[in-house]
Amino acid sequence: MNPNLQMHFLQSVEIQQKFHIETDMLRLDLIHPIISGNKWFKLRYYIEEAFQKSNSGIVTAGGPYSNHLVATAHLCKLMGIQSKGLVRGYANAPRTHTLLQAEYDGMELEFISKKDFDTPNFLESNFLTKNDYWIPMGGKGGLGVKGFDIIADMYPLEKYSHIICAVGTGTMMAGILNTAKPHQHVIGIAAHNEVQPINIFLEEFVETHSVKAAYSLFEKYHEGGFAKKSFNLIEVIKEVWNIHKIPLDFVYTAKLWMGYQDLLVKGFFNSNSKILLIHSGGLQGNLSLPKNALPF
Q1: Could you count the other beta carbons within 10 Å of the beta carbon of residue 12?
Q2: Is 244 exposed, middle or buried (0-12, 13-18, 19+ CB in 10 A)?
Q3: What is this structure's pTM?
Q4: What is the pLDDT of residues 111-143, one digit of tens each?
Q5: The two domains 7-33+148-288 and 39-139 share their CATH topology (first three levels equal)
Q6: In CATH, which of 3.40.50.1100, 3.30.43.10, 3.50.50.60, 3.30.230.70 is domain 39-139?
Q7: Which run of H or E residues covers position 60?
């Protein structure tokens, strides 16, 4: 699968003109309608290794609204390889749009209790055969991080003083840090309130790699937790669409935008800053909203 990677995916998104701070958004949501945003970068090297090792199928895990499950299912369908998703939750719960899409693309779903799902190494130890290839949840891991080297090769990221992304597992943020320059500051906006594992992961990554850039992880823009939303968050999505015609989702990218705007208002950036926001895709989560809740 070859994604559509083009230079015009850099879009100016300055709306706070009184600050006179140059801001662009890297529209990774445009590379593919289903394998959207950062997912192709995370999955690429895992899929390649699975083929090299002649594994019979790919097994991965996620929650009922996991963009990762949808992207993995569709990519496996395109590549002609079997896929299985281990889902955090219960089989008798109503199927989300996410899980319906994954099943449509041929992914076998197996539901795991929340307790077992959250037990370290439980999934890998109990649900893999010797011929299965395991992709960690969210694509977290060395191969997932490596995929973001492609972004640095494709786009002129070095001109930005700050690169800002939404954070789920921390994989994309680590990938950006891996290629960032000494003059850059990488900022993560946590999409959920379980940030301790992310902090540990990033600290270990920085210690074991030649990370040259500074980084910050902001934890207060999650709106109550993963996939939690508020009236204000939905209004932010509408506003960004009306002004820029950029679709955001309430799980990740709207929280990214809220965090950026708040930091801007509070004077976090100096007047010479050049800011890049990374749109990480994953719009399918919006399908869980009531019909016509959003203008796109």
Answers
A1: 10
A2: middle
A3: 0.91
A4: 999 999 999 999 999 999 889 999 999 999 999
A5: yes
A6: 3.40.50.1100
A7: strand 57-62
